[in-house]
Fold this protein.
Amino acid sequence: MPQSNVTRIPAPGLDLQILRSEIDRIDARLLELMEERLTCSDAVAASKGNEDADQLRLRPAREQQVIERLSALATRMPRASITAIWRELMGINLQAQQATHIVIHCPQQPVLVTDQARLRFGGAAPIVSAGTPQDALDRARNREAIAVIEFSPLSNWWVELFHDEALTIFDCLRDKHGRIVALVIGRVAARHVTSDTSFLVLGDGALRRRTGAGDKVQTLALAGNLRLCVSQSAASREAAQ
């Protein structure tokens, strides 16, 4: 199909069938571009070779950069729609590179957490249920899988991540009010995690050092002398205000 950089804007008053034909043409072009993107993603995966062989193919920081860049370019598309569409596209690309299961433990709010996981990782991602948080973490540690574990300040499954060098809490899922409903854990290298928000398991001493240095750290849960914390960058805090 010949390609053109010229935007064809339908003239007002055109016949309805002509306008529908134009939409069909655009849809066909969109599909062609999405499949072209998938082919390019395959080439990216091949070029990585053995880089981070023990890590997931997921690149949260890169995903966020894409969404931020496109949101800045958009003139009519809402940011939420851009996020949903490109999350789906990037989810398809991830599964094409390496089949990656989403392993969910959500005994209290299964519908909410599962729906949010679908929005985050796309409809192509196979979702499986885990009976315990430890089951989800074991799969994330030893297989091509991402653990999604329902969050409660009363639970302490996150304690085992304090000494775990393989797994990282690299994202969270939120409800419509912005409350954290689940944490997302996987084998993602620190340099591939978004810098806006960090989830950390800290001892009391480390927490005091961070707050003493001026870091804005919020405690989400505690167990003994360990705390599950979230830290936001200055830019992220300003955007939230």
About this structure: The chain has two domains: 35-44+52-194, 195-241. The first strand starts at residue 101 and ends at 105.
